[in-house]
């Protein structure tokens, strides 16, 4: 304890902050890269004028609340004030649209990755580039604004992501990690920068309607390990209005939650992959080479070091599970029982292991928002069952967990079957895996691949960006990110691997046949409600 207190006081620490969909989380790591303090702040997006958004006021209120909780945890555990950190990194939800004018004023409310109203732009750009441009990518949002003739385009001077925005305000630098940048605009793997051919094609397409060249609008791209500025006095006050936190910490390039998830699971080497499960759920597979053709279900992005990654991104993940858990907790409270949320989740998840392997005639769709992989522009959460099916808690919960994984399975089939992509290992992380052995086992069945979870699985991307911050300041000269993770951070880490269970694999396959057949029901619900 005394050694850690000394490390905190001397700034031999790294601070990672991640702005997730429902929680902003901060972790402080010590010299051995383990988590020594945490803080968090809950928040939620708003659906305003048919657009999913967060206000910038909510961003800073959340960041300050999160940092205050972290500082309080440090004080409680170690009896000292959090006045300095050795390195700092910011991560956040990828993609979306944050457009600013020359004075740094936001031109239109933040349009998050969750919006799927960019179909025309996505289709047009994918055809123009010969490269899949998903609905949620920043360039799709920009071109949709062009197609809509939006007035603010005449004043646009800077376009970034949420992580890029926060980093800019903390450091004064408009930069982005290559992994996050690859979700704004395609990256040329050979150069590590934006694809110049596609930049030129876009400039021709948008000529006269966007005042600057696209390269002038986008943030500069940096790989992991490059210096990305320092915490300014103004930035320190934005994080900590009490004045305790001092400026000067080195900042690593801001990254997206996909990249920090790869770091948090040691999945940056080729033929490794990870699955992150939270409000959205996505798989990241580091490729040996290019795919044979373009697939609308697959995004091509990069690791924080700039290697090519196939990404299966599902807009809808665990939110509907959270809603059902809340309902059961409310019922428990009405009965007079204590309804600790962790106990509720653990009870419900463990019950799922005894459910019918094929879902027992139950069906669920977890679509709170649109889902491009299944070509749905809006979502309606649904639960339905066949006449005569057995409605019990175990099968109900297994069905809900299956539903959270089903769309991911559709995308993974493209990689594993159509493209014959090979994997040496698959890691999983995120809150869905906090209850040991449940979601991990069902995911192994869904993709028919062993799934490994580590000690840091529930810490997720906040720890991942703290590791990237430490990589900036503590790596040896010439050390790659893969070597740093394998030889330093994960050396001796405890890992638990779940092998696919044959009955679960067969059951999930049967569930998927019914799921795909029932998709027209979900589509009809979006048209008639």
Q: Output the structural class.
A: alpha/beta
Query: Low-confidence spans: pLDDT under 50, at least 5 residues?
Result: none
**Helicity range:** 25-40%
Number of helices: 17
Q: Which shape, going by the Cα principal axes?
A: globular
Gap between N and C termini:
57 Å
State Rg.
22 Å
Nearest-integer average pLDDT: 94
* Range of strand content: 15-25%
Q: Major sheet: size, sense and barrel closure?
A: 6 strands, mixed
Number of strands: 23
Keywords: Carbohydrate metabolism, Kinase, Transferase, Xylose metabolism
Pfam family, one: FGGY_C
InterPro entries: ATPase_NBD, FGGY_C, FGGY_Carb_Kinase, FGGY_N
Domain Carbohydrate kinase FGGY N-terminal: 14-128
Layout of secondary structure:
Elements: H1 2-10, E1 14-19, E2 23-29, E3 35-42, E4 46-48, E5 51-53, H2 56-78, E6 87-92, E7 98-100, H3 119-129, H4 138-147, E8 158-160, H5 162-171, E9 175-177, H6 178-181, E10 187-188, E11 193-194, H7 196-205, H8 214-217, E12 220-222, H9 233-239, E13 250-251, E14 255-256, H10 257-264, E15 272-277, E16 281-286, E17 299-302, E18 308-314, H11 319-334, H12 341-352, E19 362-365, E20 382-385, H13 393-418, E21 425-429, H14 439-447, E22 451-454, H15 460-474, H16 481-489, E23 495-498, H17 502-528
Helix pairs in contact: 3-4, 10-15, 11-12, 12-13, 13-14, 13-17, 14-17
């Amino acid at each position: 304890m005394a050694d850690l207190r000394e490390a905190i006081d001397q700034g031999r620490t790294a601070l990672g902050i991640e702005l997730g969909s429902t929680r902003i989380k901060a972790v402080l790591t010590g010299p051995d890269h383990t988590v020594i303090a945490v803080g968090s702040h809950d928040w939620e997006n708003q659906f305003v004028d048919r657009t999913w958004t967060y206000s910038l006021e909510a961003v800073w209120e959340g960041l300050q609340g999160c940092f205050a909780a972290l500082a309080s945890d440090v004080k409680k555990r170690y009896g000292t004030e959090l006045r300095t950190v050795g390195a700092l990194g910011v991560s956040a939800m990828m993609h979306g649209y944050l457009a600013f004018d020359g004075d740094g004023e936001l031109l239109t409310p933040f349009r998050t990755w969750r919006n799927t109203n960019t179909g025309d732009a996505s289709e047009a750009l994918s055809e123009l580039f010969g490269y899949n441009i998903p609905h949620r990518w920043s360039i799709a949002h920009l071109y949709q604004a062009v197609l809509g003739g939006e007035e603010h385009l005449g004043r646009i001077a800077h376009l970034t992501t949420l992580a890029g925005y926060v980093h800019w305000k903390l450091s004064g630098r408009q930069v982005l990690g290559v992994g996050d940048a690859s979700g704004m605009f395609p990256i040329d793997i050979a150069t590590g920068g934006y694809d110049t051919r596609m930049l030129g094609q876009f400039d021709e397409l948008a000529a006269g309607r966007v005042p600057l060249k696209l390269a002038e609008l986008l943030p500069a791209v940096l790989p992991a390990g490059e210096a990305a500025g320092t915490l300014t006095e103004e930035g320190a006050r934005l994080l900590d209005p009490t004045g305790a936190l001092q400026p000067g910490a080195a900042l690593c390039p801001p990254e997206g939650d996909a990249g920090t998830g790869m770091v948090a699971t040691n999945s940056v080497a080729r033929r490794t992959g990870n699955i992150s499960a939270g409000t959205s759920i996505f798989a990241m597979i580091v490729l040996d080479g290019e795919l044979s053709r373009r697939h609308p279900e697959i995004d091509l992005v990069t690791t924080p070091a700039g290697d090519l990654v196939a990404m299966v991104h599902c807009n809808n993940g665990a939110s509907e599970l959270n809603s059902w858990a809340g309902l059961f907790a409310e019922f428990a409270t009405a009965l007079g029982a204590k309804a600790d949320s962790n106990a509720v989740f653990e009870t419900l998840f463990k019950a799922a292991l005894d459910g019918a392997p094929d879902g027992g005639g139950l069906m669920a769709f977890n679509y709170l928002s649109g889902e491009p992989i299944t070509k749905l522009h809006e979502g309606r959460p649904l639960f339905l069952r066949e006449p005569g099916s057995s409605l019990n808690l175990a099968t109900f919960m297994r069905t809900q967990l299956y539903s959270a994984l089903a769309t991911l399975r559709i995308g993974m089939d493209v990689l594993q079957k159509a493209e014959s992509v090979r994997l040496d290992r698959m890691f999983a992380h995120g809150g869905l895996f906090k209850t040991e052995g449940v979601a991990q086992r069902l995911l192994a069945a869904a993709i028919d691949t062993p799934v490994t979870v580590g000690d840091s699985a529930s810490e997720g991307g906040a720890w991942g960006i703290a590791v990237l911050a430490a990589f900036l300041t503590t790596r040896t000269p010439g050390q790659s990110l893969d070597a740093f993770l394998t030889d330093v951070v994960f050396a001796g880490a405890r890992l638990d691997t779940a092998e696919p269970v044959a009955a679960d694999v067969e059951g999930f396959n049967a569930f998927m046949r019914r799921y795909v057949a029932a998709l027209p029901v979900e589509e009809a619900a979006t048209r008639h409600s």
